Amino acid sequence: MLLQRRQVAVAAGAGGSYCPARPHSTSRTSRLLVAAAAAVTARRPLSNGLSLVSPVAFSPSLSRLSSSCKPQQLQQRRNRRSVHTQAFDSGTALGVALFFTPSILAVIYAYFKGKGNISDGLSRMLTEFSQGYFQPDVGGKNIPVAQGELSDLAGDEPLFKALYQWFIESGGVYKLEFGPKAFIVISDPVVVRYLLKENAFNYDKGVLAEILEPIMGKGLIPADLDTWRVRRRAIVPAFHKAYYEAMVAMFMRCSERSCDKLRNAIAASSDGSAVVNMEAEFLNLGLDIIGLGVFNYEFGSITTESPVIKAVYGVLKEAEHRSTFYIPYWNVPLLRAIVPRQRAFAADIKVINECLDGLILQARAVSEQLDEEVLQNRDYSKLSDPSLLRFLVDMRGADPDDKQLRDDLMTMLIAGHETTAAVLTWALFCVVQNPQVEARLLAEIDAVIGDRDPGLEDIKALAYTRATLAESLRLYPQPPLLIRRALSEDTLPPGLNGDPNGYPIGKGADLFISVWNLHHSPHLWKEPELFRPERFEEVHTNDAFGGKWAGYQPEAGRGALYPNEVASDFAFIPFGGGARKCVGDQFALFEATVALAMLLRRFTFRLAVPAEQVGMATGATIHTANGMMMRVTPRQAAAGQQQQQQQEAATATV
Ligand code: HEM
């Protein structure tokens, strides 16, 4: 059993929340586990000592699930558990007892070690155990070391906040050392540019790939470099203008369904308003959109529940669990077979795979009937299935097998669902708390689309709406950390203020690019904590760095509609950058622009709870801790409509 993958726990959050169907609270114990993961990162098999900590006794996911899922889901889960329990025979029971008894002893040991505080005890215990077990430090010798205790990572705040504090104290490149193991945290745009663009192929996705491989197979995110090159070349052309035009129409239809749902909720209320968890609504919307856009599958999750939807959420939840749990017990075949959540995971994967296989089969059958000319000149405005899947099977030269296609689809389903939902969630959160931004947004939306159905051209005119989404992605980047591992020795550039000799690092060094730190950096942004979309309209340079960093220059963004890493010289990287940049960035931003515009022109949203109660919990994306409860009321006649009404009234009078 290898523990090296546990470092993703820190990377993932910075936490690890894929589960969309529930609020995302993170207990102190689970944070400790994440912190502990950092301590036990290793490439050598684990001694028996560390497996003393029980996966079940300390499972953050289990404790969070039971406290946060819908009663119906909980009941189903309980039922499932009881069926599994009955299936245990006595041999299995003995195996389980043998496995868990040491865990209980570990808890007792940690209790005394931590003088009554189990978290502290575990932290110390794991740090001690880690001594001597793991490979020598592969981090550069001259990298500043952040001062702190492992248990500092186990505080009440999300973990990326701890990484931010160390960035402020230790600089844009620093090292966290736990025993002989180190993590290098990068928050400097020059070093980030080097890692993502200038020497991108010396790095792979390390533990992230290991976690995601059982789910995404050889999809773009976890794929080995050879597979990645072939598939990236096949997938990128699928995102073309005609596709986007078809997609924008679909975004509009799906957003209209969300509007209908809100209208119904309001109609059913007694006071003309409804309190709605907008995070959950955006997740439903995001799932429906990604299903239609990627493989022309109607999840219909805005209005219904289905086994496939449950399976998708189940898989997302398991990805979260794996990214926060530091013992990869799911790699042990016996445990995979007997642990209920692992069996449920296998069942969920099967449901999704069967669904995707059916869709691939169908797409292939349709494609084979079409001749080359029709394929070359297909008219997207008339296609009943304009999805990426159809494009990929129609690309006959590329000829991926069904398994590869399925991996591609699964990857895009997971990469594109929660991320986009999270952008909408936090954008709305920011907008409703900034009346001036809200007023300017509404004026723009009314003027550009009014009551019409928005199209691709309208997005180009919604400049302030686009800047608003970018600004919320700056404050709430999804994900807050990117993960890399060095494939061979390298020397990181000194960056803005680092050692002029640079930082030599060894093969296997683990790096976390802190998108959160970059986006919140007081060195790179004026008043970084302010929500101010206008900043993306302004040129901002900083002479203090002697020309090493170009600052933010809208014109440098290669004519892109949305602010990007090029315009900001890698200070703003919501979609990464360089060769591994997100393939779905435009898809996601168009989707968010259409959805936000359509919702805001119809409804007024106000937080139904104090802002601090919303909370933050993190994983692959930043979630709320307690849902985004908003009071929704029909918007008073939009300004455009009001104007029109006034004009009509005036004409009538004349
Ligand atoms: C607002 C929504 C989204 C955000 C914030 C986002 C963010 C990112 C980021 C930061 C990366 C780079 C990861 C790294 O360098 O380690 C990435 C990669 C990726 N994203 Fe997205 N993404 C979003 C939506 C989407 C959508 C809608 C799709 C698919 C339709 C998608 C598909 C992918 C894929 C396939 C990759 C891997 C690319 C590669 O390695 O070549 N993403 N995304």
Write up this protein.
This is Cytochrome P450. The protein is of the alpha+beta class and 654 residues long. The chain folds into two domains: 135-215 and 479-573, Uridine Diphospho-n-acetylenolpyruvylglucosamine Reductase, domain 2; 228-478 and 574-649, Cytochrome P450 (Cytochrome p450, Orthogonal Bundle). The protein contains 25 helices and twelve strands. The protein has a five-stranded mixed beta sheet. α19 (435-448) crosses α23 (585-602). The model is unreliable at 1-88 and 130-136 (pLDDT under 50).
- Which radius of gyration do the C-alpha atoms yield? 25 Å
Architecture of the largest domain, CATH level 2?
Orthogonal Bundle
Distance N to C terminus: 84 Å
Strand content: 5-15%
Structural class by SSE content = alpha+beta
Spans of at least 5 consecutive residues whose pLDDT stays below 50 are: 1-88, 130-136
For the largest sheet, list the strands in their spatial order. Answer: 1-2-8-5-3
Shape: globular
Largest sheet: 5 strands, mixed
CATH class of the largest domain: Mainly Alpha
Hetero groups in this structure are: protoporphyrin IX containing FE
Q: CATH fold name of the largest domain, please?
A: Cytochrome p450
Total DSSP helices: 25
Portion in helices: 40-55%
The count of strands amounts to 12
Biased composition (Low complexity): 636-654
InterPro entries: Cyt_P450, Cyt_P450_CS, Cyt_P450_E_grp-I, Cyt_P450_sf, Cytochrome_P450_Monoox
Binding site for heme: 582
GO molecular function: heme binding; iron ion binding; monooxygenase activity; oxidoreductase activity, acting on paired donors, with incorporation or reduction of molecular oxygen
